[in-house]
Each structure stands twice: as structure tokens, then as C-alpha cells.
């Protein structure tokens, strides 16, 4: 296999920690710049990268420095991923994570892991425009985590950007991809309002789950039921508590879970706190980014009703970050439970990756 973008990657990563004004009233922190992802099933593609960058074919990780942490300790932070097409023309699951590693240790000695944002790549042909998909999230919760002095004294903070792709279809279907194994090119930024005051409140982080599989045939509390329960502990009495929930249904087999909308229930200490059905009203806004012919979009637009009959998520869209808000959470042990009673997982295929964490003042 040929390795592409070697020179570009080495040069671009030199500016990985740059800060600049992206708008008159905001600052932009560039975490990763034009990083190249390769076949997730292949052996590691060797690349020379900047010191402090940890990588695999599907993941890039680096530590935030003191200046970057000070910038992110803010009440108004947005995160943006710009994903450029290379030689994977299918829809894939990808995410960005915040890692906490004890002082004195290095990656991969991760102590705590938080999923900041999850998204689905479009069906992209790199030769067609647009060939870059921008994704944007509210990432203000990051500042509440890195702004905790006791945390900062105990941990170093790392950002990780994960994109799993494979080039096999594109090698046959996309002009210029024959023999190549580079799949996507990624950029990651944080935009911070320059005029915002720093938050003086001290927030406590409670990690609960990180992209844990949920189904009814293996990853479950009870075989035959789509239920997963997590026990966690609040070290102190907390106020203004927010739980952050990310879930998306996957399984592309016939009657697979990604094609069937199911009601999801989230309980806290056996009390229902959140009820939702994944999926958007329509996936048409993302049609422009799905430049590779595919069986999801087809050649003509679909009605809202057609989209709502089968799509749990849209290729090219952000997976929603759902929240549960509580006035208080008492010190001690608690349990969070997700239940999807109607999920079937035909032929014992498919899963629901579930992430959850809490922040309280």
C-alpha cells in the first residue's frame, strides 16, 4: 500500500498548538491540523509526527498545555471538526474525547475518559465538492472539567480524535483511490469567546460510561433485554447537576437497529429522567455532503415521513448530546440505567454505543 500525505502531516502538526483570532470576538485553538487516518484493519502505517502526538491508524491524541487549558476554562466554548474525504466513501462512526491521565504518567495510561462529541461521516467521493464536512458542538462542559484546580493538580488533560475507516470500496469506486489506504483527513478546533469571563464555580466530574456497547444478546444486564445499569459515586453533595448522554443505534444488517427507531429510557436511581427516540425529522440537509452514490439517500429527496420511518441518524450529522438537569445530587452511591425495550438486534447483530458523565457544582 502507498502512504500518502506524509510530508503534509509532518508539516501541519508543527502548528498543532497554535492560537489565533478566528473572529473579532473569539479565539481559535487548533488541536489537530490535517491529520491523516488510515485503514482501521491494517497494520500501523509509520509516520513521523510532532513530539507529544500519539497516534494509530484510527486515532490521534495529544496533551493540552497550560495556555490551552486556561483558554478552555471559559463559559462559552464550541468545538469544530472539519473532516475531509480521502479513500473511504462510506458512513462511519467517529468521535472526540477528553482523557484524564494522572500526573507523572503518559498516554496510554488513561484514568478517566469522556466522550465530548460523536458524529457520522458522510458517503463522500473525494473528487466531488463539497469534500469537507464541518461539525460543530457546544463544548462548554470541557471548561468546567479542566477548570477544577484539584483535578488540574492531579491530572494532565489530553484530547483524542478517533475516526475508524476502511478503503476497500473506495479503491474500486473512487477515481484515484486504487492502491491507497488513507481514509480521512481531520482538523479539530475549539472556538472560545474572547470577552467571556472565567467561571468561578468549581465543578466535580463523574465519569459513568465511555462508548460502552449495549444490546440484548451480549452487552446487557440480562440476556434478551436491552438494559445496562451503571453504579457511580458522588464524593460530595452537588448542586446544578447535569448528566450528558450520547447514544446511537448501529447494525446495518436486514432489519438492523440503525434502521429502526426505538424509544430510549434513562433512569436515575430508578426514576425516569429522560425519554427519547433517536433520529432527525429529515436527513435532507446533509444530502449535499453525501457525494458518493449510496443506498441511504438515493437519487431524489425523501419526505420527512420517509426519513422518520427508518433513520436513527443521518450520514454526515452530529449525534445529539442529550442532558438531564437536576437541582442537586446527594453524596453517595447512585445508579444510572438505559433501557431500550423494543430493540430486537436481528441475528444477534448490532449495538448501541452509550456514553454518559455528570458535572455538578
TrEMBL record:
Taxonomic placement: Bacteria, Pseudomonadati, Bacteroidota, Sphingobacteriia, Sphingobacteriales
Record keywords, A-Z: Disulfide bond, Signal
Signal peptide start and end residues: 1-21
Keyword Signal listed: yes
Limits of the Peptide-N-glycosidase F N-terminal domain: 28-176
Gene3D superfamilies: 2.60.120.230
Organism: Pedobacter albus
Protein name: Peptide-N-glycosidase F-related protein
A Pfam short name: N-glycanase_C
SMART domains noted in UniProt: N-glycanase_N
Keyword check for Disulfide bond: yes
